[in-house]
Design a protein that fits this description.
Number of domains: 2
Order of helices and strands: EHEEEHEHEHEHEEHHEEEEEEH
Number of strands: 15
Radius of gyration: 23 Å
Structural class: alpha/beta
Largest sheet: 7 strands, mixed
Helix content: 25-40%
Strand order of the largest sheet: 5-2-1-6-7-8-9
Oligomer: single chain
CATH topology of the largest domain: Rossmann fold
Strand content: 25-35%
Length: 317
């Protein structure tokens, strides 16, 4: 008999695992639980989550509770009586009463090597902090925030220039084999959960829009890590002539023969735009998107703005 699965998730990070479960004969995906449809952009109608789109394509039953703590959620799961619930980036804490329904529990694929980076944004926080390695964890969730016992882990490198969307896509694909192996081993009783060491726990809270504001007093590498981590949202931004500008760039060598500059100072040299950062470092700006306008190259921006030698990017208007 195939293992009966309810899949619980929302963003694209969980799609490779859902599609693998659907294709594997040893599993039977009975239903999908995902967040309610939400407006994606101002003025648009509510849009499906990536997981809902995949469930519709597979003609699976879909359940979208506003709050997973509702009595209806317990009735829904008891009616299906799954062997396990696979949960990947769903977006809500699961109440204790629901955790006891599937006999193998709720099995989570988390984007870090727990207990490091518990929370909603482990991949972004790892890049933001300049980590060179990360990984994936399967765990049996409990009523806490990513505090459940660890089942298996897979360590991975983070590329020096890898952005959050790139790393997230790669980790989503890599997580499929880890998840499948975990489920197979649990089904035959060959996997012993291991408690997390809470003393080693670190946290990865949800991203906030204000975190995208660049502080030019920080070294260029830290600013670059922020640019990599905060794609596509909240992005990284600064102010120029009182207007907000989103900005992309890379650390670079100091432009030739210009001497020291205050952080935020803009220097055009050999057709390139550089910004002075903390500790004598520099960021080469590649693209800029002024508020209300399209994204453009740094050269296009400089030609249109006619930047003077005394002008700076700032952290305030």
């Amino acid at each position: 008999m195939p293992l009966r699965i309810v899949f619980c998730g929302t963003p694209a990070f969980g799609l490779p695992s859902l599609k693998t479960l659907l294709a594997a004969p040893q599993f039977s995906v009975e239903a999908v639980v995902t967040q309610p449809d939400r407006p994606r952009r101002r003025g648009q109608n509510p849009a499906h989550s990536p997981v809902k789109d995949a469930a519709l394509e597979a003609k699976l039953p879909i359940y979208q509770p506003e709050k997973i703590k509702s009595p209806d959620a317990a009735e829904f799961l008891k009616r299906i009586a799954p062997d396990a619930v696979v949960i990947i980036a769903y977006g809500q804490i699961i109440p204790r009463g629901l955790l006891e329904i599937p006999k193998l529990g709720w099995i989570n694929l988390h984007g870090s090597l727990l207990p490091r980076y518990r929370g909603a944004a482990p991949i972004q926080r790892a890049i933001l902090n300049g980590d060179g390695r990360t990984g994936l964890t399967t765990m049996r969730i409990d009523a806490g925030l990513d505090t459940g016992p660890i089942l298996e882990q897979l360590e991975m490198e983070i590329g020096a220039d890898e952005t959050a969307p790139e790393l997230m896509a790669r980790m989503g694909e890599a997580g499929t084999s880890l998840l499948i192996h975990t489920l197979q081993q649990l089904a035959i009783g060959e996997l012993t959960p291991k408690p997390q060491n809470n003393a080693l726990a670190t946290f990865a809270p949800p991203l906030k829009k204000e975190e995208g504001l660049l502080d030019w007093s920080r070294p260029a590498r830290e600013i670059y890590n922020r640019i990599r981590a905060f794609q596509p949202w909240p992005g990284t931004y600064t102010h120029f002539r009182g207007r907000l500008c989103h900005l992309w760039g890379h650390p670079a060598e100091s432009p030739a023969d210009i001497g020291a500059h205050e952080p935020g100072s803009i220097v055009e040299s050999r057709g390139e735009m550089h910004v002075a950062c903390g500790e004598g470092t520099w960021l080469r700006v590649e693209h800029i998107q002024p508020e209300g306008r399209k994204r453009m190259s740094a050269g296009e921006f400089a030609n249109g703005a006619r930047i003077s030698s005394a002008e700076k990017f700032t952290s305030s208007q």
